[in-house]
Amino acid sequence: xxxxKLQVLxxxxxxxxxxxxxLTLPIxxxxxxxxxxxxxxxxxxxxxxxxxxxxxxxxxxxxxxxxVARLVRPRNQSxxxxxxxxxxxxxxxxxxxxxxxxxxxxxxxxHNVLYPSSEGTPSRDxxxxxxxxxxALLDRLAKDSLQPQRKDDWLRIAAIVEDIxxxxxxxxxxxLVAAVSSQYPDKLAFLAATxxxxxxxxxxxxxxxxxxxxxxSKKIASAVDESFSxxxxxYFLRQQLAAIQxxxxxxxxxxTSVGPGFGTGGATSELDDDDQADADDLADxxxxxxxxxxxxxxxxxxIREWRRLxxxxxxxxxxxxxxxxxxxxxxxxxxxxxxxxxxDILKDHxxxxxxxAQLDADHYGxxxxxxxxxxxxxxxRLRALxxxxxxxxxxxxxxxxxxxxxxxTPPTKxxxxxxxxxxxxxxxxxxKTSLGQSIAKALGRPFQRISLGGVRDEAEIRGHRxxxxxxSPGSIVQALRKAGRNDPVILLDEVDKVGHxxxxxxxxxxxxEVLDPExxxxxxxxxxxxxxxxxxxxFICTSNTLDTIxxxxxxRCEVVELSGxxxxxxxxxAKRFLLPKQICANGLSDSQLxxxxxxxxxxxxxxxREAGVRSLERAIGAVVRFKAVEWAEWxxxxxxxxxxxxxxKQNENRSEKQDGNTNVNGSGKEWRAIVEAHELEKILGIPRxxxxxxxxxxxxxxxxxxxxxxxxxxxxxxxxxxxxxGTGRLKLTGSLGDVIKESxxxxxxxxxxxxxxxxxxxxRGVDPLKVPDVIDVHLHLPAGAQKKDGPSAGIAMICAFVxxxxxxxxxxxxxxxxxxxxxxxxTPVGGIRMKVLGAHRAQIRKVILPWANRKDVxxxxxxxVRREMQFFFVRTIDEALDxxxxxxxxxxxxxxxxxxxxx
Length: 903
Ligand code: ADP
Hints:
Blueprint: E1 5-11, E2 22-27, H1 29-41, E3 45-50, E4 59-72, E5 84-101, E6 110-112, H2 124-144, H3 148-163, H4 169-179, H5 184-192, H6 196-252, H7 274-291, H8 297-311, H9 317-331, H10 343-347, H11 351-362, H12 367-396, E7 421-425, H13 432-443, E8 447-451, H14 458-462, H15 475-483, E9 489-493, H16 507-515, E10 538-543, H17 551-555, E11 557-561, H18 567-585, E12 594-595, H19 597-607, H20 614-639, H21 644-655, E13 662-664, E14 670-672, E15 674-675, H22 680-684, H23 692-695, E16 702-708, E17 714-725, E18 730-733, H24 738-753, E19 775-780, H25 794-806, E20 814-816, E21 819-820, E22 826-827, H26 832-841, E23 846-850, H27 854-860, H28 863-868, E24 870-874, H29 877-885, H30 894-902
Parallel strand pairs: 1-3, 7-10, 7-11, 8-9, 9-10, 12-15, 16-20, 18-19, 20-23, 23-24
Antiparallel strand pairs: 1-6, 2-5, 3-4, 4-5, 13-14, 16-17, 17-19, 21-22
Helix pairs in contact: 2-3, 2-6, 4-6, 5-6, 8-9, 11-12, 11-13, 18-19, 18-20, 19-20, 24-25
């Protein structure tokens, strides 16, 4: 029998049909006809042979005998040249006795074929290796498949592979190789492997190779996927960012925007490098948090907030809130990030001498105050040194009193400066702030000033809680941040003006906590919310009066009074401090401007009339500025165009030693460096106080009293009274408080009681307000806008009533103060020093004061003022009236009274 023949069907490259596999392919009409005719006579087996790649040898040796399973012509088959679909089922390998030449695809040539024997059992090792590789691949395929159905299929096949016998292994290899995807040459080689052992080995290799390919491609896929999704995300965010920036830019460049410098600008501007600056800021913040003391509360809070910050998307409101909190938190001078005063300054033996020199250099006079400050500085120094010594001893032998095994004692906290808190009380411009600055300079510490005037809200001192929109720390923390150290000198300005308990909390109580040495080592700012140690801070308070300061606050302070300056002191201060300061501030030199003593005094007396020197400084500043303009114009005129010559001239003029009066330049015109008193009107205008004394009139019913204003400034105040038809009543006006009203009542009662002795009424028991005419008495204190209270106007009121009712006048150069009692005694009052100085400034030369206030005049009033004034110290109202009206001026009926009582 000849060798079997089969019609050969060429499979187009890269199709390949392995035994046991199925394959469907499109075929042409002629091929379909040929296959159809085949179906008619036999069981339709063809030799399906793979067509080699176009560039490889076109000879084929191996193929697969395949049964035609189906031939259909689907309706929707798209290819017009190949409208049929042929399904083949691979049965077994075939081999051609000799390689056949492939030429045409669309007919079925007949060729002799051989059926290679697939008998034989492969070796156990080969089968094991095959199984192992197959299972590994199946496992990976199961894992990688996305559809659960497919996963199950792979696992089911794996279960069959596990149980496969050695005889069936080769068949299994065919099934698996047909099922898994692999490369064409590998499949081709596998088809050619007729030997069972060889076939299994090839299958093993193919599986191993496919496993690793599968693994690598999976990795690549997931990496690509990941990077792709990250890229996508980044791209998306960048698009959003760019859109936001565009919006912002368009807002900023719109006409309503803030102005130049924030617009779209050139790309080169450093202002545009937001990202970099932002990253730098964050890195800086992080460094600062890391630098905080390990284990400290501030660090814990800092780390917690930092973590929150990282979780919250940038650009959100919350992110900004946390960031600004962290910036505040890290900028508070904690022990870890701030330096304290080096002890060397305090240890230095010349510390006190240098401190005194500093105070003297900054301030004229104030001897008593400077002495008090020196005591204070000495105490600060001793305490600091003792504190340092104690800390050192503890450091040297930390466990002297600790038994072995006892818990280590925590290092004691520095006690800080727990001396009294200084409270400078005095009118404005008397040097309270600048004394504080001098103390800070002497101690080598930074100086900060917190103005408490008008603070009604506790949060201004203690900060707003962070839940509050736009919350921020209080003034104490802000001052600490500005100082950058935990031991600055902080001046609490105007503590008398701080508000008391209201619905915004109690600012005075917050202030007490700040100042209380027992509490202030753990001051709690609501915003920062971590206890801050203020014990190293040196607080100094200032106020204008003591009246409105709460008792507990006053209790913690040591009061140092600055009452104001005499004209003599003012002249010295002006010459030594204020004028040089203003000359320098206005770009002139000492040689270019001088004010004569007369001119200075004129400014002090006619243009300002205050206790301090602030207005004086302002007025001097105005004179200096006026002269500075004159000087510049003079130079311009003389030197022509501005330029080098101008500068040279100016320098020349500066260095030139002048005769103190005039400066003659090239053109012969003179520069007057001196300002005299008569020129002041041209510069400062009409004197504010000119003629005040002249206008003061000696008039019936008018008397001058002495007062201290709310600003702590002394002065005189007219007490005016007049009679008008009425019902015998007293009318009081001028924004008066209860106490002063009562003083008025007492004064009138006393006058009514003593009207007969004073010669006001003709008979005893007659009411001077009813006889001869029925009148009302109206008493008025001018400057009605200012609230007035206190008992010290008593004797002035009595004098006013006596003058009104008797017709006698009190001379206009007399002023008085003193409280009265119904029984006719004059009792002492406060503020004598300020009142006397105020009277002196107002050109009053005679002052009536209570007898008990003699010591105040002697101790507190400067000698030159005392020398220029005459003091009447009175014990009773009678004495006061005598002093005011002059002895014998009133028609006293004292003798008669005495006589009558004896009778
Ligand atoms: P206060 O705080 O009492 O209102 P300041 O301390 O601000 O007043 O003083 C106002 C100005 O007066 C400052 O320029 C200060 O240097 C100056 N001054 C006040 N007293 C003296 C003084 N005794 N010697 C020199 N300058 C003084």
